[in-house]
Amino acid sequence: MTKGAKVDEKALPAEAEPDKGAMESITRVLHVCRAQMDELVVQLDLVKMNLRDELNDQADVAQNAFLAARSALSEVGHDAETTAKNLRQGLEHLIQDLERVYDEVDAVIRRGA
Fold this sequence. Notes:
By secondary structure, the chain is mostly helical. It is 82% helix and 0% strand. It contains one helix and no strands. The protein starts with 19 loop residues before the first helix and ends with a helix.
């Protein structure tokens, strides 16, 4: 066929003419497919919302566990500091007592010598 030549529509075979029934059938199938796709989009949105809610819940649980652990470690640190301070004071008293005993024993030895 040459460029710009017109096609005589009457010369086309009958099969080439669009069948209105087939077109309507294809249109209905396309509408059903579109409705199913819309339904899937809605379901995916619901799943996304559920996952977001679940992740937020898990994040809250993790944050609460972190805060509890941090608080417990803070108390342990304070308790350890208090214990170390008490231990130091006890050792200082022990050293003072040992010095006093040494001085008393030394005094007894000097008097007896």
